[in-house]
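Notes, Module 5: Reading structure tokens.

Key idea: the token line is not a picture. It is a compressed description, and you learn to read it the same way you learned to read a sequence, by spotting repeated patterns. We will look at two proteins. The first is printed below with its tokens.
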Amino acid sequence: MSEDRPAPALIDLPHEVRHRVHVLAAEVLPDVAKLPAPLRKVAHFAPARRARLGAGAMTAALDADGDFRDRVGVQVAGSLPQPVEDLMDLAPGGSPVIAAAVAWLCRPDGWQDVLEAALADLADHATGRDAVEADRLREQAETAEQAVRDLRARHRDEVAVLKAENATLRRKLGAARAAPRQNVIRPFASDVPRARRAVEVLMSDRHVASAAPRAASSTLTARAALRWAPRRSAPPRNSGPAGSF
């Protein structure tokens, strides 16, 4: 495969490959000569912070400036714990993410073939992950739908019970409204004769109490009349003939 094929831009690579390129570049950023202005301040940060805060600036600079990318690639190749060719090996057990990042950044002979193979491997893995994720989401959706159906069934049963209770209460209320008033006062019917007798006794006592003064007054009047009656009806005493001494 020809080496003069156009290389893909970093911005177009999968997210995990871009992130690995940022991590590799951030490790060596202070040792790279002629840093672009947006990266000079970032170079003083810790490596993890450089990769996080300088990701956008590094992507722009690496895509726009081939010389800068070459300088970064040289520093990265010298800092790796293994030779570049070993990290680009896609044998079983190798990481296609690391292989793609190292190939794009260091660009040894055959790097484009390795990059394409690594990206194809990542696409296959992504397809498999997408299928697994789709199955998981499908199962979750089916479980949620069944839970909704069960909940609706329980609600229908609860509504039916509440409607039956409401109908029963309405019947009881209608029966209570239609009941004769006697049913309401019947518990007090036995007290009516007793109350009537009490009223009669009370009225009798009031009559006696009011008649007693009149009777006493009549008695006193009669006694007074009897006491004075002899005096008014007795003849005057005769003093006798004169000279009866």
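Here is the second protein, with the sequence above and the tokens below, as before.
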Amino acid sequence: MRYRKLFLKLSLIVGLFGLGGLLSFAAQSPQDGNAKDINTLMIERRDVLAKLVDVLKGRHERGLTQVNSVYLAQNELLRAELELAKTRQDRLAALNSQLAIFQSLENEALALGKAGVRGGEAEVSLSATAGRLQAEIQILRELATDK
């Protein structure tokens, strides 16, 4: 069970690393006649993911699901929000959310280590730290842009 949790966290981290390329995609908007349809679908996807996060949080609070499921859903919601971000403020909000997720993962890995739990927490900690650093880089890059 412990290894599964660590594996899921690593999966989350790998997924979050993919956000760098997504930021450049988010800055582009479709130019063809399908732009409105695409945007409508992107909004619908974001809204569905927000509901999923709420459901999973409730299930986690009742002990019915692992916290990893919540992290993974939050990651997907964050990706959807970045795709829709049209302003610098929106992008920074999404990136700060990403940073908070990595900081949370770092803290969890540290707590596992202090509790004497062995079996992958070093990998989770290092991956979370690398992810946090990447998020900080992306925030600084966004702050350096003129837009």
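Summary for the second protein:
- The chain is about 80% helix and 0% strand.
- Residues 19-28 have pLDDT under 50 and may be disordered.
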